[in-house]
């Protein structure tokens, strides 16, 4: 087992949280009061310090299941969009500049000749074959942990994991459906857009993937190896390691929130270091949020991935911390 469910994750400081809530009990700040107290508890100090290095890390990967023709986006979109983000363009960079954050893209499994971080080129079509080998699964876990350590060691005080890849919502929905015993039709979402025929293809692929792992509910790591993807596995490890390193995480859409759900299952206590930035139109997103008992800060129907929805909510988090410091 690569994830140790018996290793305790130190929770945010409950005493600091209580002190923060008491200090601004009559402030009228509503949920911003709770949000600011969470930041203070994560930092272990009241009043909380301003959030000065918020970091978006986009985990990019391609997925063999898209060969079924379930997306309106071409398969090469993932590689092209990763290059756009690397160049400093795209919605995620616009929102990051507006929110005072920075962006990093990690090629975990894009369908191209990658660099030293790449685990493999693309991933298996999970409806008929395993997503990755055991060695590749281990490499994806180690990559996610290593990147979390790099960001925390370089001074990140809030991490915003993002996802990029055609077919990533399909993979996330299949994993969530298998682990929560939710019917495929209930976890399927619009992704990047679809008509009735594409919806049928997507449901069939998720159904077949879930059937392949129908007896692996008690073996989540093996289930992930078979029907997830290296980029999703790296996301899980990244979020769990951030929590282990006592660094708060602001979640984005369905793939990221499903990854947080998996991180909590594999490393209990992770969810206490997470806030839900937004609610997207993906049914799997809402199911994962409910399982984590997290309430999103905004609901703008954003389905862009890449951390964009979390970035749209980031100003609320930074403002909540500064409001508590001012009230104190």
Automatic annotation (TrEMBL):
Keywords: Glycosyltransferase, Transferase. The keyword Oxidoreductase does not apply. Pfam families: DBI_PRT (PF02277). GO terms for molecular function: nicotinate-nucleotide-dimethylbenzimidazole phosphoribosyltransferase activity. CDD domains: DMB-PRT_CobT. The keyword Transferase applies. PANTHER family: NICOTINATE-NUCLEOTIDE--DIMETHYLBENZIMIDAZOLE PHOSPHORIBOSYLTRANSFERASE. This is Nicotinate-nucleotide--dimethylbenzimidazole phosphoribosyltransferase. It comes from Corynebacterium hylobatis.
């Amino acid at each position: 087992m690569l994830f140790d469910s018996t290793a305790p994750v130190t929770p945010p400081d409950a005493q600091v949280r209580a002190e923060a809530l008491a200090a601004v009990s009559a402030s009228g700040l509503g949920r911003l009061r709770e949000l600011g107290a969470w930041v203070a508890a994560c930092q272990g100090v009241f009043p909380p310090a301003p959030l000065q290095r918020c970091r978006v890390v986009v985990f990019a990967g391609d997925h063999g299941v898209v060969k079924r023709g379930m997306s309106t986006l071409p398969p090469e979109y993932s590689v092209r969009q990763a290059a756009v983000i690397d160049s400093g363009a795209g919605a995620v960079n616009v929102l990051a500049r507006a929110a005072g954050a920075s962006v990093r893209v990690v090629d975990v499994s894009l369908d191209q000749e990658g660099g030293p971080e790449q685990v493999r080129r693309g991933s298996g079509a999970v409806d008929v074959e395993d997503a990755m080998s055991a060695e590749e699964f281990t490499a994806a876990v180690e990559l996610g942990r290593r990147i979390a350590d790099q960001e925390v060691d370089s001074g990140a005080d809030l991490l915003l994991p993002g996802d990029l890849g055609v077919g990533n919502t399909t993979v996330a929905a299949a994993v969530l459906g298998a682990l929560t015993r939710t019917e495929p039709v209930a976890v399927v979402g619009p992704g990047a857009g679809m008509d009735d025929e594409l919806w049928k293809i997507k449901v069939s692929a998720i159904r077949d993937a879930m059937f392949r792992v129908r007896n692996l509910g008690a073996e989540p790591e093996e289930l992930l190896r078979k029907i997830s993807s290296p980029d999703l596995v790296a996301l899980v490890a990244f979020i769990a390691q951030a929590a282990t390193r006592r660094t708060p995480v602001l979640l984005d859409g369905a793939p990221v929130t499903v990854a947080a759900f998996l991180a909590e299952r594999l490393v209990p206590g992770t969810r206490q270091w997470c806030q839900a930035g937004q609610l997207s139109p993906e049914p799997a997103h809402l199911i994962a949020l409910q399982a984590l008992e997290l309430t999103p800060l905004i609901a703008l129907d954003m389905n862009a991935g890449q951390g964009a929805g979390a970035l749209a909510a980031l100003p609320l988090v930074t403002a909540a911390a500064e409001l508590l410091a001012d009230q104190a």
